[in-house]
Design goal:
The chain has helices at 6-14, 21-38, 42-45, 63-73, 98-118, 120-139, 145-159, 184-192, 250-265, 268-282, 307-318, 352-356, 369-377, 383-392, 402-418, 425-434, 436-441, 454-466, 468-474, and strands at residues 53-56, 78-82, 200-206, 215-216, 234-235, 243-249, 284-288, 321-324, 327-330, 335-340, 360-363, 397-400, 449-452. It is α/β, with parallel strands linked by helices and 475 residues long. It has a 5-stranded parallel beta sheet. Strands 3-6 form a two-stranded antiparallel ribbon. A hairpin with a 2-residue loop joins strand 8 and strand 9. Helix 13 (369-377) crosses helix 15 and helix 15 (402-418) packs parallel to helix 18 (454-466).
């Protein structure tokens, strides 16, 4: 991120999102400010808080896509959540604190993955040595299935036949005086030539410490149990004897042992410490569908999925301490980005306190026909490029003319105007309708070239557009 200026961030977003310049610029500045804050002296850095954003716009204009692309740009913890899945604390459903739990998990996965990549080469070397040891021992152990593999392989080699990697575990040799069938150098040679890839081998693996769920959740701790003393609560690592046996192919064993050795080389405590620091200093949370928890005040009963969730979000967005399995986490400097269409409500329907937590608001405009054309032609992940790649796997060369692309954009715009406006998502349904027969018959036309022009599009779509009621259900 330190190498990306706001202009470069916008340029990266332009590859996938058409228009919405105001939203892109606001996001770019907010992300760059994360980097700028890290360069400040500690006494100033503590007082520089993120300016949370609220993106307002109809569905299908790029709000979620902006979040998805931002996540790929960031070298920082990022999580996207739906506001509709939360309820007020104490009721059935997820509490808003799970947002921070998910953010921590994402951060740990990120840091752990980076550390594993750093030690991968060394881990593969250590894994190879372990694998050779397992193979040498088991191929020369008459009570091991690999012993039978070695005998059969040697016999096949003498007869000039291909090696047989199948291990028959029901027939064991019990010749205690039998000499070793293979020397270590022979085992290494066979392994390097991939002659044993399909053979079964028994290996011992350590339990992955990050996959181990043996912890006491500090959220279950009551102040009555110890006066607020959380000592002894939190993550508990598996002991050194936490091992398990796996019987897998040699090819799979190579991968599992490399991961096992890499985990040994990585300091899990340091990974967790760095991950928590990243969450506190540079975490980003995208809250989608935030408009669904806004609305008129409920006069009777508790609004546990609306106003109740808003009240619970307040301390987390403003800044508080959340107790997690790994210890306390401060949310003061986490950047929150809210998004919603606000069809049936407006931002002022949010409770005033929550409105104040999103001081920067940007509006995303509805997409026009020309925007649809640019989405289909200019974006790096356009639907046309995706369908061309998909059909290329069947040997079909799919070509679109410019007038076909314009006609698809016109149809999508027309249907959005006459039915429900779902933005760029309408392009999915129109193109799927246009290419339905081509996709179905593609396996029977390998090597063929299919040209899609405006007339082709009209033949597939016009009969449906004539019947407006039918178009409501089909397109």
């Amino acid at each position: 991120m330190e190498n990306l200026t706001p202009r470069q961030i916008v340029a990266e977003l332009d590859k996938y999102i058409v228009g919405q310049e105001a939203a892109k610029r606001a996001i770019a500045v907010a992300l760059r400010n994360r980097y700028r804050r890290q360069q400040l002296p500690p006494d100033i850095r503590r007082d520089v808080y993120p300016k949370n954003l609220l993106m307002i716009g109809p569905t299908g204009v790029g709000k979620t896509e902006i979040a998805r692309r931002v996540a790929k740009l960031l070298d920082a913890p990022f999580v996207k959540v739906e506001a509709t899945k939360f309820t007020e604390a104490g009721y059935v459903g997820q509490d808003v604190e799970t947002i921070i739990f998910d953010l921590i998990d994402a951060s740990i996965d990120m840091v752990h993955g980076q550390r594993l990549a750093q030690v991968q080469a060394k881990a593969e070397g250590l894994a190879k040595e372990r694998l050779i040891g397992y193979l040498y021992q088991q191929m020369n152990n008459q009570h091991s299935p690999s012993r039978q593999l070695a005998a059969r392989h040697r016999g096949n080699r003498r007869r000039g036949a291909a090696p047989d990697p199948v291990v028959n575990d029901s027939k064991r040799q019990h010749d205690e005086a039998a000499p070793p069938l293979y020397e270590r150098a022979q085992v290494i040679e066979m392994l390097e030539k991939s002659q044993l890839d399909d053979a079964l081998i028994e290996i011992e693996l350590n339990v992955d410490p990050l996959a181990y769920d043996g912890y006491v959740d500090a959220a279950t701790f009551s102040s009555d149990d110890g006066g607020g003393d959380f000592e002894g609560y939190g993550y508990q690592y598996p002991g050194p004897s936490a091992k398990r046996l796996r019987r897998v192919s040699v090819k799979e064993a190579r991968r599992l042992l490399a991961r096992d050795e890499a985990n040994k080389l990585v300091d899990i405590d340091d990974v967790i410490d760095q991950a928590l620091d990243r969450v506190e200093q540079s975490g980003v949370v995208f809250i989608d569908e935030i408009d669904k928890i806004a609305g008129p005040r409920v006069e009777t009963g508790a609004d546990v999925s609306g106003e109740g969730v808003q009240r619970d979000l307040l301390p987390i967005i403003e800044g508080s301490v959340v107790m997690t399995r790994y210890g306390p986490v401060k949310t003061d400097h986490i950047l929150f980005i809210g998004a919603g269409s606000f069809y049936h409500s407006k931002p002022s329907d949010l409770i005033p306190e929550l409105q104040g937590r999103f001081p920067i608001r940007v509006e995303l405009a509805a997409l026009s026909r020309d925007d649809f054309v640019r989405i289909l032609k200019d974006t790096d992940n356009s639907l046309i490029k995706q369908y061309q790649a998909l059909l290329r796997t069947e040997g079909v060369d799919l070509q679109f003319t410019d007038d076909a692309i314009r006609r698809i954009a016109e149809v999508a715009t027309q249907v959005n105007e006459t039915t429900e406006n779902i933005g760029a998502r309408r392009l999915h349904t129109v193109i799927e309708r246009v290419l339905e027969e081509v996709s179905f018959d593609a396996p029977d036309h390998a090597g063929a070239t299919v040209l899609v022009d405006a007339a082709f599009v009209d033949r597939r779509v016009n009969p449906l557009l004539v019947h407006d009621d039918l178009a409501r259900y089909i397109l």
